[in-house]
Design goal:
By secondary structure, the protein is an alpha+beta fold. 35% of the residues lie in helices and 27% in strands. Strands 1, 2, 3, 4, 5, 6 and 8 form a seven-stranded mixed sheet that branches. The longest helix has 16 residues. The structure holds cytidine-5'-monophosphate.
């Protein structure tokens, strides 16, 4: 008897605060960040059949399907990681990641419908990987607890454990240590993805940070206290920050134009999403946010009106 298919939403995220405290002995950077999922999401499903198919969820998402030659994508890496657990349970010998991926994809058909722009700072790849771990854990009845899934996710990317939990979380360490936070009042964001690209983007952005970009974590402590003061706290533009804001201007070149466009459309604050290049314009009302996204799209920009938390 074939098992029922399982569908999981894989939401994008934004960092309300993103403070990089400094470089660690292991080469990673120590972070403090309040992160929230947003309503823009990919859809991951697993079911009978075999193989991995990725498709654009909408016509205007065709550009999202950029293959990375020679490298496994985050979904394939997640399939390989859980296939190793499936083989352990069946007392089969260990395999290389590529062979484990083939083994896994003979035992489940995996389909990903993309909406989140790739390499954009919105955590799309990590979210897809986390959704794959969640869906296959259920589909193969592996019985892994949330904490075990988070540990597996940490090996796939520093922000991957966040997506195992979702919602609003305080992240520390290299991003993998999480504490749930109460939701703020609904946030309206216009995401604008400039057509700017950078090889090894995240690693490069971290390398570009200097002591002047580092935070001391105080902004994140203050926002955490505000959120913990009661459900539905109002987020103010001064609460938001991102240690990459200045370095990204330098690295991407031409980002200022897009900041000015969002401010001109009425955003109360504009910050980079993660390590960019997507910018989030923060709006005080839904109408203003939707209008800004429609205007940007009519001018040919890649823009989305989203809300948070999701
Ligand atoms: O963990 P992830 O694969 O997303 O990280 C990509 C790169 O970003 C790392 O190899 C590292 O250079 C940098 N990074 C960092 N500190 C973090 C997260 C990532 O230096 N907290």
């Amino acid at each position: 008897m074939s098992r029922p298919a399982i569908s999981v939403r894989a939401p994008a995220k934004v960092n309300l605060t993103l403070e990089v405290l400094g470089r660690r002995a292991d080469g990673y950077h120590e972070l403090r960040s309040v992160m929230t999922t947003v309503t823009l999401a990919d859809e991951l499903s697993v079911g009978s059949g075999a193989g991995f198919v990725m498709a654009a969820a909408t016509d205007d998402a065709e550009g999202l399907l950029m293959p990375v030659p020679g490298a496994l994508n985050t979904v394939e890496r997640a399939v390989a990681v859980l296939a190793v657990r499936l083989r352990e349970r069946e007392h089969l010998s260990p395999l290389s990641p590529e062979a484990a991926l083939r083994f896994g994809l003979e035992r489940a058909g995996v389909r990903l419908a993309k909406r989140i722009p790739v390499a954009a700072g919105l955590g799309g790849g990590s979210s897809d990987a986390a959704a794959t771990l969640i869906a296959l854990n259920r589909y193969w009845s592996l019985g892994l607890e949330q904490l075990e899934l988070q540990q597996l996710a940490a090996a796939l990317g520093s922000d991957c454990p966040f997506f195992i939990r979702g919602g609003v979380q305080l992240a520390s360490g290299r991003g993998e240590l999480l504490r749930p936070l109460p939701s703020p009042a609904r946030l309206w964001l216009c995401l604008l993805r400039p057509p700017l690209h950078l090889e090894r983007k995240t690693a490069r952005l971290y390398e570009l940070l200097g002591p002047g970009d580092y935070g001391d974590g105080a902004r994140t402590v203050a926002l955490t206290a505000k959120l913990e003061g009661g459900c539905g706290a109002q987020i103010d533009p001064e609460d938001l920050c991102n240690s990459f804001d200045a370095a990204a201007e330098h690295a991407f070149g031409g980002l200022t134009v897009y900041r000015t466009i969002l401010a001109g459309l009425g955003a109360a604050a504009v910050h980079l999403c993660g390590a960019g290049p997507t910018l989030a314009g923060w709006f005080t009302d839904q109408q203003g946010c939707s209008r800004a996204a429609s205007t940007l799209r009519s001018e040919g920009h890649a823009a989305w009106a989203v809300s948070a938390p999701a």
